Amino acid sequence: MKKLSVLFAFMLGFMLLHAQTPKHYYVKITTNKGESVLKLYNETRKHRDNFVKLVAEGYYDSLLFHRVIHNFMIQGGDPDSRYAGSRQELGNGGPDYKVPAEIQADIIHKKGAIGAARDDNPAKESSASQFYLVQGRVFTPAALDSLEQFRLKGKKLTPLQRETYTTIGGTPHLDGNYTVFGELLKGIEVVDAIAGVKTDERDRPMTDERFSMHLLTRVEARDFERELQGLKPKKGIFTKLFDSMKSRTYKLP
């Protein structure tokens, strides 16, 4: 009996060891230019949870990137774009609520970041559904000096901003004005491809650029996090047994 108890405890511990909940939520974005994988930040929980809810509901399926500006960003999330005519003006659709601002000094508009679009409300509350993916550009130190002097009216960039925007690139003038709530970890070239398409006078692509989104399951997210660490997915018998007993979804605090 004692041996069986020890064996059971060992197996239970082994299964629990392999049962780690993923550290983040991840969203796969599928376009006709390829696929990307987005990590949502836990530091911006209100935006994270709202986005997860909409993705899980299929809200974003077959919407358009309706506003595209080369070396700046690509914007989507307007539900009116799903069945929009070729010349229809877009950018005003979305749920009838806003998400409180979660702007943080150390979460910036680097290339590949996802930010929440908004109108000119003084509280800087975000649109519930519209978002943009940053393309931006790489700046020289002199260009950042000029940005500080003229566009930022003397406000100094932080060391983090200077390091990021002279290496990775992005859109520094948006910092402090819009909530950034995640970043692409895979498929940044998709943003470059869409940002380079021809657009009309309203910055809408001449050819529809549709996308859909899929929230990674617990197993998919766990395996993706292992991939980021250079590790292979867990495929052992105990892992499969535990996975069969668990929900496909997971909830983060």
From TrEMBL:
GO biological process, one term: protein folding
Family listed: Belongs to the cyclophilin-type PPIase family.
InterPro entries assigned: Cyclophilin-like_dom_sf (IPR029000), Cyclophilin-type_PPIase_CS (IPR020892), Cyclophilin-type_PPIase_dom (IPR002130), Cyclophilin_A-like (IPR044666)
Species whose genome carries this gene: Sphingobacterium humi
Domain PPIase cyclophilin-type residue range list: 34-208
Domain of life: Bacteria
Secretion signal span: 1-19
Protein name according to UniProt: peptidylprolyl isomerase
E.C. code: 5.2.1.8
Cross-referenced Gene3D superfamilies: Cyclophilin-like
Top-level taxonomy: Bacteria, Pseudomonadati, Bacteroidota, Sphingobacteriia, Sphingobacteriales
A GO molecular-function descriptor: peptidyl-prolyl cis-trans isomerase activity
UniProt KW keywords: Isomerase, Rotamase, Signal
